[in-house]
Each structure stands twice: as structure tokens, then as C-alpha cells.
Amino acid sequence: TAVVMAGNEEVHLVAMLSRKEKFLCFWAFNVARGLYSACLGLLNLRCLAIVFDLDETLIVANTMKSFEDRIDALQRKLSLENDPQRVAGMSAELKRYVEDKGILKQYTESDQVTDNGKMMKAQSEEVPPLSDKHDRLFRPVIRLPERNMILTRINPE
To answer: Domain ranges in the chain?
Structure first.
């Protein structure tokens, strides 16, 4: 991308090939200064763990079923796609979903995962109580910061 500073904002120009007419064009994105570089690692992985909404912060949560559904949908899309750039992007996304599903499967079976040859066991973490009237609750948690992933059980019983 090409970046042009405009006050407290950055204008990013991304060279793209038009899908229909096959001519070169630019997509322009206007973002707050530093936002792009702060998110670049997640953008390169084609994932953002936190989505900022106008009203609240939403955290993306996945289950085995949601991974299976996403993998199936992506495989269907991939079988119909002809654009090599899009095929490469979809293939990378599919690979990540399959890897993430494998990690979740390990966690559900044993409360531990092996990632890049390193075994990590769940640590018990206390859930902050909503009020003094709530009982103390502990959940098994594994944090994988390099994958931008946290594994836990909503209902630990």
C-alpha cells in the first residue's frame, strides 16, 4: 500500500485488479494514524480477535461446530473460485481454520494443547464476580498470544 499522511489520519492506497474489467485501480482507506500498523499482524493472518462496535466491544468466539461450518462454507467457495489471488487467500484462511479447530479439539479432550512443539496446560483463573452476591468461579484457561487465541470454558463444570 501507499500511505499519505493527512493530519491525524492516514490515507492508504491499495493497488487492485478489477475482477470484472481486469484493469488496475486503487482502493482508498482513511484510518486514524497508527491504526494500520497496530493491526498489521492480525491483518496478515486474516483475522481480528476483537471487533470494535459503536456500542460495545465484541469478542469472536468459536466452537467446534462453528469451525466445521466455516470450513465447509470456505471449501464450497474455494471450489468455485477462479481468481488465483483469491484462491491463495481462501486457502490460507482454510488452513488457519483447520489448525484452530485442531487446537480447540485438543483443548476439549484434555485441557491442554501442543502448539509449535510446546505443550501448554490450562491454568485456573478466577472470573471477576459481577457483584458481591455471586460465588467465586474459576475457569480453565490457556492463552496463546502468538495465535491471538484464548481457550476457556464458559461453563467449567
So the answer is: 1-43
